[in-house]
Write a structure and sequence with these properties.
The protein is about 35% helix and about 15% strand. By secondary structure, the protein is α/β, with parallel strands linked by helices. The protein has one domain: 3-Layer(aba) Sandwich (Rossmann fold).
Length: about 180
Amino acid sequence: MKKLTLIRHTRPNIPAGVCYGQLDVGVADSFSVEAAVIKDLIQTADILIASPLLRTKRLAEYLAAEFECAWREDMRLMEMHFGDWEGRSWNEISRHEIDAWAADILYYSPQGGESASQMMQRVQAVLEELARLPQRHIVLVVHGGTIRAILSALANFSLADILRWQIEYGAVIQVKL
């Protein structure tokens, strides 16, 4: 059986209340402290795979150097794309659009973005490939939405219910594949 460790990136360098799904933001000044805590929690990895966004890539590079293991990027592990909402304060997005999204959380997509269902499809494709990898301990450095999609697929929970779960920056979740 394989061990899959899911890590949410450290605190991003963006003000609270801003929608930043696939917006490529850096990491906060607390990165080195947060990264060291994560390293101590997982202690080892055979391979790391990360979203190509800077906030995940930076952590994957750090952990790969610490564990002396390979790492690679996979675009399918990026956070949900919020289209025209990216970089805007949640308060600036029209109430009508937020209500439409809340009414159809799985299939509504913001203008120019993707739906949670579309994100789920790309994440499921990654999971199928992970099962075929020879490595026994796979570490994914990803985003809150990506982690929710993975947990939904692995535990056969409704994505609509899991989307409401709070996953903190730097969260480490271990599951069996």
